[in-house]
Amino acid sequence: MSFATMKGAELYLEACKLVGVVPVSYFLRNMEEPYMNLNHHGLGPQGAKAIAIALVSNTTITHLELEDNWILAEGVMCLVQMLRENCYIQELNISNNHIGTEGAEAISRMFLDNISSLRGNYRVKELDLSHNEFSEKGGEHLGQMLANNEALEFLNLSWNHLRMKGAVALGAGLRVNGTLKILDLSWNGFGNEGALALGEALKLNNILVQLDISSNHINNEGAGKLAKGLEVNGNLKILKLSHNPLTVEGAIALVTSIRKNPKSKMEEINISNVLVNGSFLKLLDVVCQVHPELDVIYGEVRGFISKKPEQRPDPMTLIQVSSPDWLHSLSTQISNGHVNTTLYRKPTDRYAYLHASSFHPRHTTRSIWAFTHESLCSNTSVSLKGATGPSVALHT
């Protein structure tokens, strides 16, 4: 029987035999469900190949999770071939799979080869490619993908060492992209050069709604380049710029760009690590009067003294102050040479008392050991008796 006549579980089991891997029971049990979560299954490239073979004819799975499976570029190439035939998968997560530059090229080529035929059947709308070590060259390939894609609405490229020419290529691709709404580029190395490319893209792109470029080595100069794009952009609502080396000057440039743009739809600018000042707050107040929906998340305010924190008592002071009271309370419990043991533990007999004679110096721990030592040295028999307990004999 050929693969062409097989379907579902039978096809997957035969594919596993072909590539020499152990079938994943979870996959077999859930092949008819729309959501398939195979994260952290240790598939490897061969396991990914078996999955890809089984999914070529699958029509029920629309959301496929393959994070952290070490599928490498080899496994991605198998998935790419599958996606050319499968038009039902809409959400795909292949993050943290060590795909590298070669895998980025394979994904990009899928969009570039036979573009006209792909327009009708390629429907992946959400794609997570984060943590895949694409590097600069991989960014160049993905930039071409962005430029030619007509389906993606969400793309996560965070943590991929994207910088320099790769960052510029992604900016160029975003400039002409007509479908992407959410783009995560955080934790890369765009720098000011990449910020310039993104600023230019924002001048023309009126589809993107959310852009995350947190932690990208963008300083005040780069913020100024981005601001040029924000001055004319009429669709971006969320801009995340936290953990970049910005100061209040960069923050002012960003907010000023919104002030200059009456058609701006900006709702959130996140610069949560930036220390601002009074001038910035005054500017923000003016801008918010025109754009009341705007929320700028910033760090501390320079020169602002926060409310004095509530003073908590020093534990050692409390102990020293309360000790006499505690001793006084203890002394009131001692009457006629008796101490009520309920102060320390719940007794078997609620009226049980420990006689004060049990505190005789010879019965303290240190005295017992000293006394025992003396007796042992003299080769005698030692008898210890408590006030109410039995005698204990120590013999040498």
UniProtKB/TrEMBL annotation:
UniProt xrefs under SUPFAM superfamilies: RNI-like
Domain of life: Eukaryota
Short name of any one Pfam family annotated for the protein: LRR_6
Family annotation (InterPro entries): Leu-rich_rpt, LRR-containing, LRR_dom_sf
Protein name: Leucine rich repeat containing 74A
Species of the source: Terrapene triunguis (Three-toed box turtle)
Encoding gene per record: LRRC74A
